[in-house]
Amino acid sequence: MILFLTIVSGLAWTVVYVDAIRIGFRDRSYAIPAAALGLNFAWEAIYATRSVATGITAQGVFNIAWGLADVVIVYTFLKFGRAELPGWVTRRLFIGWALLLGVASFAVQLLFIVEFGWELASRYAAFLQNLLMSGLFIAMFVARGGSRGQTLLIAVAKWIGTLAPTIVFGVYGNSPLILGVGILCSIFDLAYVGLLWRSRSGPPARPVTVAPTDYASGASS
Fold this sequence. Notes:
Blueprint: H1 2-27, H2 34-54, H3 58-80, H4 91-116, H5 118-143, H6 152-172, H7 176-199
Helix pairs in contact: 1-3, 1-6, 2-3, 2-4, 2-5, 4-5, 5-7, 6-7
């Protein structure tokens, strides 16, 4: 059952990442909230590398696949993310913010490892950043005035992808912390699913004002 739930979670999160890439290029935006994306990318880069070094498992295969997908999602953030910010945010400020976010994300993941060790750190960090992502998805929906750069498929797959390991580590692993955080994730995730479902019959999302330059173009401002 644990292997089955691990595969369910892995496939569901793979759907999240693949659709995030698709919708990012389609809507010229990024589909994973910036802070959650930074933490996810750092987590997957660290644990995918460890998987290669210590032996590939089913989870390790997914970690590597997610890490590669995250590289593309980070690209969509760098290319289109500046357009989501106020006009006074210059290219240099945006690059500086992105670099700071990346460094901080790796620092947080490494501090979890130092504090808890590899096994517990991977679980605690994953669930806490998952809860952060759940809240930030709702904030993204509100900030963008609708579902631009987001899809119901991402929302549902994220919920399933989190629920499965909640059962694995919270129930079978007998961890009250993971079970509690996982339940909170489900509450936020289902609220987000409801928002996206309701928006399907509502008014279109507010269009974004695209900045004249972006990071990928290399132009200055």
